[in-house]
C-alpha cells in the first residue's frame, strides 16, 4: 500500500518549519494525535535530527514501541573532521537513542553530504559503520541536495539509504539518472521536500514576493492542477509517491488534519502529469537559498 511509503517528518515538531507554516511549532497534544493516526494506518518510521530544534526532545516524552527512527549527524561543514568531531557525533547519537528510549534504530544519515568527502570524512564513515556492525542501527546513509560527488560518496560511505529532494518542480534526480543509479546499487531512496516546504500547497495570493521571478513556473503548476482536476496536495503527493524507485516519502504535518487529508489522497489511482513544470534554478528548488522576510 502507498500509505506504508510515508515516513513522518518531525521538523515542524521542533520549529516553525516551512514557508507556508503560519501556526508555528506543532504542539505536543497535536503531535500525539498525528502519531496515533499514523500508527493506526500502518506508518512506522519517523525522520528526525538533532538539528530540528527541539524535535527529538519532544519525541522523548512519548512511548514509541510502535515506531522506529531515522536520525542524522550534525552538520560539521568544515574542511577537516577531527577526533573531537567524532566524539561529538557519537555523543549526540547516544543522546538520541536515550531520548527515543531505544537501544537500536532504523537508521542514521550524514546530514551534510560534503562532510563525507573532506579530510577526516572517512572517520564519519567508520563510526557509522561501527554503529551498524554493533546493531545500533539497521542502515546508514546520507542526505544530499545534488548529485555532486555522489559516486565518491557512495564509494566511501557505502550507504544503505540516500535521502534526496524531489517534487513536481524539482525533478533533477529523475532527469539526471540518479534514481536509477541508486536503485541499481540496491540503495533505499527516501524522498523529501515533496511539497517544497509547503510552497506547492499555497494559492497564488499566498505566495511570498520572493518567488515572483518564477511566477511562470508556479502558474504552470497551478494550471496543470486545474486542467487535470487535481488539488495541489493530491497532485504533489501523487507525483512523487508513485515513482517506482522511491521507497519512502518523508512528509511533515503541522496538524492531524493534514495527515488525514494525505491519507485520503492516496486512494486516488490517477497519475499526475508534471511535464514542463520543473526548474533547475537552485534559488527556487533549494529552500536553503530562499531569502524570505
Q: What's the gyration radius in Å?
A: 19 Å
Shape call: globular
Task: List segments where confidence is low: pLDDT < 50 over at least 5 consecutive residues.
Answer: 16-22
* Mean pLDDT metric: 90
Structural class: alpha/beta
How far apart are the first and last residues' alpha carbons, in Å? Answer: 40 Å
Helix run count: 11
* Percent helix: 25-40%
The biggest sheet, with number of strands, parallel, antiparallel or mixed sense and barrel status, is: 8 strands, parallel, barrel
Oligomer: single chain
Total beta strands: 8
- Element-by-element helix/strand order: EHEHEHEHEHEHHEHHEHH
Give the neighbour order of strands across the main sheet: 1-2-3-4-5-6-7-8
| Residue share in β-strands | 5-15%
Short characterization:
This protein has 293 residues and is an alpha/beta fold. It is built from eleven helices and eight strands. Helices cover 36% and strands 14% of the residues.
Protein architecture, described:
This protein has 293 residues and is of the alpha/beta class. The protein is 36% helix and 14% strand. It contains eleven helices and eight strands. It has helices at 28-40, 55-59, 83-100, 121-133, 150-157, 172-175, 178-184, 215-228, 232-241, 256-265, 282-285, and strands at 6-9, 45-47, 68-72, 105-110, 137-143, 161-165, 188-192, 248-252. Strands 1-2-3-4-5-6-7-8 form an eight-stranded parallel barrel. Helix 5 links the parallel strand 5 and strand 6 (161-165). Helix 1 runs parallel beside helix 10 (256-265). It starts with 5 loop residues before the first strand and ends in an 8-residue tail after the last helix. Residues 16-22 have low confidence and may be disordered.
Amino acid at each position: 500500500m502507498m500509505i506504508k511509503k510515508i515516513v513522518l517528518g518531525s521538523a515542524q515538531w521542533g520549529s516553525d518549519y516551512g514557508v507556508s507554516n503560519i501556526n508555528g511549532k506543532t504542539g505536543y497534544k497535536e503531535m500525539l494525535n498525528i502519531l496515533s493516526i499514523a500508527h493506526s494506518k500502518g506508518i512506522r518510521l519517523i525522520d528526525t535530527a538533532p538539528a530540528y530544534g527541539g524535535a527529538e526532545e519532544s519525541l522523548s516524552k512519548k512511548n514509541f514501541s510502535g515506531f522506529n527512527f531515522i536520525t542524522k549527524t550534525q552538520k560539521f561543514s568544515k574542511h577537516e573532521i577531527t577526533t573531537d568531531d567524532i566524539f561529538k557525533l557519537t555523543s549526540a547519537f547516544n543522546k538520541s537513542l536515550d531520548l527515543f528510549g531505544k537501544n537500536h534504530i532504523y537508521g542514521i544519515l550524514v546530514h551534510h553530504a560534503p562532510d563525507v568527502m573532506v579530510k577526516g570524512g572517512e572517520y564519519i564513515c567508520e563510526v557509522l559503520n561501527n554503529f551498524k556492525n554493533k546493531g545500533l542501527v539497521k542502515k546508514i546513509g546520507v542526505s544530499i541536495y545534488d548529485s555532486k560527488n555522489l559516486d565518491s560518496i557512495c564509494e566511501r560511505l557505502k550507504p544503505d539509504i540516500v535521502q534526496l529532494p524531489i517534487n513536481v518542480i524539482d525533478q533533477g534526480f529523475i532527469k539526471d539518472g540518479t534514481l536509477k543509479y541508486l536503485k541499481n546499487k540496491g540503495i533505499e531512496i527516501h524522498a523529501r521536500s515533496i511539497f517544497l516546504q509547503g510552497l506547492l500547497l499555497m494559492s497564488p495570493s499566498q505566495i511570498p514576493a520572493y518567488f515572483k521571478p518564477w511566477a511562470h513556473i508556479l502558474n504552470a503548476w497551478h494550471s496543470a492542477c486545474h486542467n487535470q482536476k487535481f488539488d495541489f496536495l493530491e497532485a504533489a503527493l501523487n507525483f512523487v509517491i508513485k515513482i517506482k524507485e522511491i521507497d519512502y516519502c518523508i512528509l511533515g504535518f503541522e496538524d492531524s488534519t493534514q495527515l488525514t487529508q494525505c491519507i485520503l489522497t492516496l486512494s486516488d489511482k490517477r497519475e499526475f502529469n508534471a511535464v514542463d513544470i520543473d526548474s533547475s534554478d537552485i534559488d527556487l528548488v533549494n529552500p536553503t537559498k530562499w531569502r524570505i522576510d
